[in-house]
Design a protein that fits this description.
The protein has 363 residues and is an alpha/beta fold. 26% of the residues lie in helices and 26% in strands. α4 (163-174) runs parallel beside α5 (190-202). It binds 5-beta-D-ribofuranosylpicolinamide adenine-dinucleotide (PAD) and zinc ion.
């Protein structure tokens, strides 16, 4: 039987989100229904609300979540009711050309639930990143559920479902930060701070944090930044070069998604260095740089979707590191809020007051 629960919906471009009754179908073949316990508020949810991702309104927001599998459809092998899981937006297909070449982290055909969740009048909802977890129950593909150690509380575990994984992976997987590297991170929200934490975990010797907000820079230090630059006050490219013997950083991670900060990242890296774009630009944005500079500086310009993570490989491992005290996931949680407080959380995110507001949905 389908179930009616409350969910946070963005009905129209730029309009405040509303708490609506949504209808969640029984899981069909290959699907799982999950009782969401906690779901972080990510900047990508705000991008959806602002119509910057696509215009398939209404959206069911929320995608950084942990919870417990409530029921599964026929033929589901991956998980069973009662399993404690983090939801992921990379349920790999195993069959596409990336998967067949042994690169499932780039899977080009990831799975989502086939059935649609709807509003009470039958209007189909588009779940953010195929998840939609600002809701008491959500319907996903079974492969979107990754089992992890239940000792990690849901407000912490859920963060690996998107932004924190994106940042950690931008450093560790995409940027391939290695022991002894110098790293600069531009934009120190939840994603940028996770990149800083990832760079520390990987053994970077210098980690330079850049932001326009001193509160964010203070927090970045807690996650492992060795130096901080307020780019409102000083030129970040010159400052990063000055901190790296005039050379630039081996890896520069852009965690905002803007042309001007991408350009800073581009020029702040050392020759043969790597730029990783993990911030999400909007469709109107363009960059215009001399092609000779692309050529002449060598190295790699990469973008990082979800930190090039493989949930089944990375989530349980990172939860283990958290439980050993080596990855301070708890420090990303600025506040725990109710399901009716998402709009207020967007406002706080906008004002730079929080790293992550986490909606405690149930239990
Ligand atoms: P956030 O809004 O919490 O953090 C952004 C940070 O950038 C804030 O600390 C700002 O102060 C800072 N900032 C803004 N403008 C500037 C500037 N001009 N110069 C320096 N600093 C500035 O967002 P977030 O950390 O949740 O997300 C960051 C981006 O990452 C955002 O675009 C989001 O959509 C994206 C993201 N990408 C993935 C992925 O897979 N690629 C996953 C999750 C989120
Ligand atoms: Zn996200």
């Amino acid at each position: 039987m389908s179930v009616k629960v409350k969910g946070v919906v963005a009905r129209a471009k730029g309009a405040p989100v509303t708490l609506e009754t949504i209808v969640v179908p029984d899981p069909g073949p290959g699907e799982a229904r999950v009782r969401v316990q906690a779901c972080g508020v990510c900047h990508t949810d705000l991008h959806y609300r602002e119509g910057a991702i696509n215009d398939q309104f209404p959206f069911l927001l929320g995608h950084e979540a942990a919870g417990v599998v409530e029921s599964v459809g026929p033929d589901v092998q991956e998980v069973s009711p009662g399993d404690y899981v983090i939801l992921n937006w990379r349920a790999v297909c195993g069959e596409c050309r990336a998967c067949r070449r042994g690169r499932p982290q780039y899977c080009f055909n990831t799975h989502n639930a086939k059935q649609k969740m709807t509003l009470e009048d039958g209007t189909e909802l588009t779940p953010a990143l195929g998840i939609g977890a600002f809701a008491e129950l959500t319907l996903v593909a079974a492969g979107q559920c990754t089992k992890v150690d239940p000792q990690a509380p849901p407000e912490v575990a859920g963060l690996l479902g998107c932004g924190v994984m994106a940042g950690l992976g931008a450093a560790i997987n995409t940027g391939n930060v290695s022991r002894g590297d110098s790293v600069a991170v531009i934009g120190c929200g939840g994603v940028g701070d996770a990149a800083i934490a990832g760079a520390r975990l990987a053994g970077a010797r210098k980690i330079i944090a850049v932001d326009i907000d001193d509160r964010k820079l203070a927090k970045a230090k807690e996650f492992g930044a060795t130096d901080v630059i307020n780019s409102r006050a000083i030129d970040p490219v010159e400052a990063i070069q000055a901190l790296t013997e005039g050379n630039g950083a081996d890896v520069v991670i852009e965690a905002i998604g803007r042309p001007e900060t991408y350009e800073q990242a581009f020029y702040a890296r050392d020759l043969a260095g790597t730029v990783v774009l993990v911030g999400v630009p909007d469709p109107s944005m363009r960059i215009d740089l001399p092609l000779l500079d692309f050529f002449g500086r060598g190295g790699a310009l990469k973008s990082s979707w979800y930190g090039d993570c493989l949930p089944s490989r990375d989530f349980p491992m990172l939860i283990d590191l958290y439980l050993q005290g080596r990855l301070p996931l708890q420090d990303f949680v600025s506040e725990k809020i109710g399901i009716g407080d998402v709009e207020a959380a967007f406002d706080k995110m906008h004002k730079g007051e929080v790293l992550r507001s986490v909606v405690m949905v149930s239990g």
